[in-house]
Amino acid sequence: MFHAALVEDNAEERARLADFLRRCEGEFAVEEFPSAVDFLTNYVPKYDLVFMDIDMPYLDGMSAAHKLCQLDEQVCLIFVTNLAQFALKGYEVSAFDFIVKPVSFSNFSVKMRRVVNHLSARTAKTVLIRGEGNLQRVAVEDIAFVEITGHKLVYHTASKAIPSYGTLKSAEELLADPLFVRCNKCYLVNLRAVSAIEGNYAVVGKDKLLISYPRRAAFERALADCLCE
């Protein structure tokens, strides 16, 4: 089951797209939004696929797409527009494809075969991290390490740090990945992100994380097993 959002101000166009989705291979749960403002307000990153009209009032589809990329890096975005020249700008926001109006089922079904194959082939497990005021969907393998200070967690990826709340135990349960191992009481480390061990420190990107003495043997053993896989 895939989750799709239709963001289109024209009710007839939304109904047509919803009908096309029902007729395509693959099972889709569909939600409809009459504007990008409605779609992005209190956005929850639960969608696999978003169809976005470009020419909409209040907030156009291209501007909405830029905001969507900040909220959800994993979603598959397809522009639906009668402005083909603007659709080409979709590559700026990593759009998967675009469909030019008037939409025909034959053209739609061809593109949807590519979309279904793409969504089915995705193997990266993702998790929802509750940040400061919003939810962010992140691929587990993109998280380099999790840090805790007091009751505040920080999920570190290569591109950003996502502040959250909880304990390292709750982070372990959320990630549910055996390649995340504690190197001390403050850090939960993705062994795939460790480039070296220098003295008492694990090198993760530009960071050096202290390996405590009680955890050193187990950490190094787990790292060696990871490298052998």
Main sheet properties? 5 strands, parallel
Beta-strand percent range: 25-35%
Pattern of helices and strands: EHEHEHEHEHEEEEEHEEEEEH
Taking the alpha carbons of the first and last residues, their distance comes to: 31 Å
Low-confidence stretches: none
Whole-number radius of gyration?
21 Å
Specify the oligomeric state.
single chain
Structure, described:
The model has no long low-confidence stretch (mean pLDDT 89). A hairpin with a 2-residue loop joins strand 11 and strand 12 (187-190). The protein has 229 residues and is an alpha/beta fold. The chain is elongated and about 65 Å long. It is built from seven helices and 15 strands.
SSE diagram, text form:
Elements (H helix, E strand, L loop, with lengths): L1 E6 L3 H13 L4 E6 L2 H5 L8 E5 L7 H11 L4 E6 L2 H4 L9 E4 L4 H17 L4 E5 L4 E5 L3 E7 L2 E6 L3 E5 L2 H8 L4 E5 L2 E4 L3 E5 L2 E4 L2 E4 L2 H16 L1
Parallel strand pairs: 1-2, 1-3, 3-4, 4-5
Antiparallel strand pairs: 6-7, 8-9, 8-12, 9-10, 11-12, 13-14, 14-15
